[in-house]
Specification:
This protein is mostly helical and about 80 residues long. It has one domain (about 1-75). About 70% of the residues lie in helices and about 10% in strands. It is built from three helices and two strands; from the N terminus they run H-H-H-E-E. Strands 1-2 form a two-stranded antiparallel sheet. A hairpin with a 5-residue loop joins strand 1 and strand 2 (about 70-75). It starts with a helix and ends with a strand. It is found in: Cytoplasm. Bidirectionally degrades single-stranded DNA into large acid-insoluble oligonucleotides, which are then degraded further into small acid-soluble oligonucleotides. Its EC number is 3.1.11.6. It is an enzyme of class 3 (hydrolase).
């Protein structure tokens, strides 16, 4: 089942990931949440955030930049 969760996270759009992260933050802000559960949510959130950063880095590398001569080049 873990492999399925990983696949779902990899296929998740950035917008979906941000919504999920927002839900995690709300759960962490809930009073009375057990410490162990808060650590697990935090860990999952950090892993998801890393995947988001990786996706953003990939997109940035694919973006094209117009150079001085008017040609497109990747950066």
């Amino acid at each position: 089942m873990e492999e399925r969760a990983r696949t779902e996270e990899e296929e998740m759009t950035l917008e979906e990931a941000f919504v999920r992260l927002d839900g995690m933050v709300e759960r962490l802000e809930t009073r009375g949440i057990p410490l162990e559960e808060s650590f697990q949510i935090y860990k999952e959130g950090m892993e998801l955030l890393k995947k988001c950063n990786d996706k953003i880095d990939t997109v940035e590398k694919k973006m094209l930049q117009v150079n001085k001569s008017g040609e497109y080049s990747e950066f």
